[in-house]
Amino acid sequence: EVQLVESGGGLVQPGGSLRLSCAASGFTFSSYWMSWVRQAPGKGLEWVANIKQDGSEKYYVDSVKGRFTISRDNAKNSLYLQMNSLRAEDTAVYYCARDGFVVVPAAPGAYYYYMDVWGKGTTVTVSS
Amino acid sequence: DIQMTQSPSSLSASVGDRVTITCRASQSISSYLNWYQQKPGKAPKLLIYAASSLQSGVPSRFSGSGSGTDFTLTISSLQPEDFATYYCQQSYSAYTFGQGTKLEIK
Questions:
Q1: What is the pLDDT of residues B69-84, one digit of tens each?
Q2: What are the start-end ranges of the H helices in chain A?
Q3: Closest approach of chain B CAs to the CA of A61, in angstroms?
Q4: How far is CA B53 from the centre of its chain?
Q5: Per-residue b or e along B40-54, where b marks 16 or more CB atoms closer than 10 Å to that residue's CB
Q6: A37, A42, B17, B42: most buried, per Cβ within 10 A?
């Protein structure tokens, strides 16, 4: 069964740090880009970051640049999100997601990407 | 950055109704557009990718169309399990979600 399981959430004070983990199983982890997506209480979805299969490319939403770091360990089938200098507005459920892909017709080397497998999420609360 | 705007933000409909949700991108994104369904307390579920491709296992009453800047998600005949929040998401340049459309029972 294809599965993603997040862990590492919890209560942290403003300015603190937290490291989220996502354990993947049931698919070839090293073949996929992976993403983190968050959802603040009562709000919509916000993509946070993603990382290429070999970790050589990483992208972030502007609001977390310089504070969050995405990484992966393909040998352990695991994705991570190191969160530093946490703020109250970082309070959210954090989801790990697989970036599925298909080839764009008539465009060699181009792919459509979409998040096709999601974990159940882990809750991060930033509060004093 | 590419902004995604969904309309309406909320919608009331009845079982059996045909429903359309619209998503507009702030610049052309070709067909790099996906749709998700989310129920309270649950992770999002992929419905449509590449603007019009139905994800495996998703009922055929869901369909997507559009390209460039304007996209639609259509549910041909609403079922009780379809009442949820729907999000569009672009993957042309990084990723951005729309603000969501909450579909409620009339």
A1: 999 999 999 999 999 9
A2: none
A3: 8
A4: 12
A5: eeebbbbbbbbbbeb
A6: A37
d(CA A61, CA A72): 18
C-alpha dist (Å) from residue B14 to A23, A121, B7, B61: 40, 31, 18, 15
Q: What is the pLDDT of residues B18-49, one digit of tens each?
A: 999 999 999 999 999 999 999 999 999 999 99
Say if CB A44 and CB B87 are below 8 A apart: yes
**Set of chain A residues whose Cβ sits within 8 Å of the Cβ of B44:** 37, 45, 95, 115, 118
Chain A residue with CA closest to B96: the answer is: A47
Report the alpha-carbon distance of residue B52 to residue A19 in Å, rounded: 37
Separation CA A63–CA B37 (nearest Å) = 25
Residue B86 sits at the chain A interface (C-beta within 8 Å): no
- State whether residue B87 sits within 8 Å of chain A by CB: yes
